[in-house]
């Protein structure tokens, strides 16, 4: 028996449980409608706890999952009385066991499980680094084949806390190609026989996996937070937090107000920030990301650089910002670095660059009065604990099996 159906957010057409990324009538997002309307926590140590609202049949058995705790030192510094940290990474002292150190692992488990349950054999994805590492790890654990296309700048992020397996096929793109070039090449590889595209934000397993950060927070706090802070590149995390808030609202036990999305990008590459400042649904490349490739090269948090984010599509980030009366911030590298060292010294854990951007945005919000002292705030520290991990594990680099010169090169030459 199925556990959910998929519903098109534009035309309302419904589909049964399957690996489906698009509606046959239009290009809107599909959303999962779960038959369990109330969140019933399962007796699992990690993400499998949230089985009610994950689009898989079998419960996910792993100790990797989101954790939420109430900040003391950092909150005091900011003068906030209800600041909660959603932490995705490795921090065993707080029972955080995501060994690839980012919330992308929360996307990878349900995505790979859904692929397996729907008969898929090999999944193809593009990554700026963290997503690829997460999927490679789950591939090493499950033996399911993954083809990961990564720009040269992301290759050093493709390490694992275990020996790489033959199920991981890493394709490196030579310098000069960025994340969006990787997306374009992955799209072509995914059309080869036997390959399934993972679909990015279009894949409900990815969104609902990431949405568990919001679920964990609501369960820990006892209510939907007033504000949700995260740094975004594709915006998938923001969309996921919004959708999770909607499910929690409909559950009825966690309050009736959606969390206000307060999302950030890293200067100079801030296309969604620019479009949202003018309340535009469309990103206009000439206005919002002029000289995109050059801007991307200058961006500190490289995983936040997606030239084709799911922003204007029905059910995408623009809709999420409208529905939650959201705010976007543009953060400089200097602000991010300052915020990173402040957070790390007060909270006692190292954080990744996109999380530093999110922390900086919270500092800006406090300064600008966009949050009140007693508001309940969820700060999604979506990646961290890399230094902590290295104390406990020997990390192995994943070796590339092929190098691509550009997104349009003949696929036969890749020999994969
Ligand atoms: C740690 C971390 N934070 C934030 C992001 C941005 O995520 P998204 O834009 O998909 O929500 C990423 C993307 O890889 C990430 O790895």
TrEMBL record:
<protein>
    <recommendedName>
        <fullName>Cysteate synthase</fullName>
        <ecNumber>2.5.1.76</ecNumber>
    </recommendedName>
</protein>
<comment type="function">
    <text>Specifically catalyzes the beta-elimination of phosphate from L-phosphoserine and the beta-addition of sulfite to the dehydroalanine intermediate to produce L-cysteate.</text>
</comment>
<keyword id="KW-0663">Pyridoxal phosphate</keyword>
<dbReference type="GO" id="GO:0030170">
    <property type="term" value="F:pyridoxal phosphate binding"/>
</dbReference>
<feature type="modified residue" description="N6-(pyridoxal phosphate)lysine">
    <location>
        <position position="104"/>
    </location>
</feature>
<comment type="similarity">
    <text>Belongs to the threonine synthase family. Cysteate synthase subfamily.</text>
</comment>
<feature type="binding site">
    <location>
        <position position="130"/>
    </location>
    <ligand>
        <name>pyridoxal 5'-phosphate</name>
    </ligand>
</feature>
<dbReference type="GO" id="GO:0018114">
    <property type="term" value="F:threonine racemase activity"/>
</dbReference>
<dbReference type="GO" id="GO:0000287">
    <property type="term" value="F:magnesium ion binding"/>
</dbReference>
<dbReference type="Pfam" id="PF00291">
    <property type="entry name" value="PALP"/>
</dbReference>
<dbReference type="InterPro" id="IPR036052">
    <property type="entry name" value="TrpB-like_PALP_sf"/>
</dbReference>
<dbReference type="GO" id="GO:0030378">
    <property type="term" value="F:serine racemase activity"/>
</dbReference>
<dbReference type="GO" id="GO:0003941">
    <property type="term" value="F:L-serine ammonia-lyase activity"/>
</dbReference>
<feature type="domain" description="Tryptophan synthase beta chain-like PALP">
    <location>
        <begin position="96"/>
        <end position="383"/>
    </location>
</feature>
<keyword id="KW-0808">Transferase</keyword>
<dbReference type="GO" id="GO:0044686">
    <property type="term" value="F:cysteate synthase activity"/>
</dbReference>
<dbReference type="GO" id="GO:0005524">
    <property type="term" value="F:ATP binding"/>
</dbReference>
<dbReference type="InterPro" id="IPR022401">
    <property type="entry name" value="Cysteate_synthase"/>
</dbReference>
<dbReference type="GO" id="GO:0019295">
    <property type="term" value="P:coenzyme M biosynthetic process"/>
</dbReference>
<comment type="subunit">
    <text>Homotrimer.</text>
</comment>
<comment type="pathway">
    <text>Cofactor biosynthesis; coenzyme M biosynthesis.</text>
</comment>
<dbReference type="GO" id="GO:0070179">
    <property type="term" value="P:D-serine biosynthetic process"/>
</dbReference>
<keyword id="KW-0174">Coenzyme M biosynthesis</keyword>
<dbReference type="InterPro" id="IPR001926">
    <property type="entry name" value="TrpB-like_PALP"/>
</dbReference>
